[in-house]
Amino acid sequence: xxxxxxxxxxxxxxxxxxxxxxxxTIVLEYSAIxxxxxxxxxxxxxxxxxxYEIECHATSIVRAIEDLLMVSRxxxxxxxxxxxxxxxxxxxxxx
Length: 95
Description:
mainly alpha; rod-shaped; 0% strand
């Protein structure tokens, strides 16, 4: 078994990786939507196909944001349950 410090470090790496993956997904999918946005000079079939693609990209963005919300919730739960140390002090304690 690994010690608590190693577990904490591994957990932090996993959380950072999830955040980075979600952020990259959001940026890439948003860029794809922007690339598909112009409609001038396109026929109706192409426009309809691209509208469907935009919906798919938007769904991917929503999933990535939901993953970020799950990470946030997990961190809050860990902090409340005392599994994460707080490096902040109450303002009255600092002089």
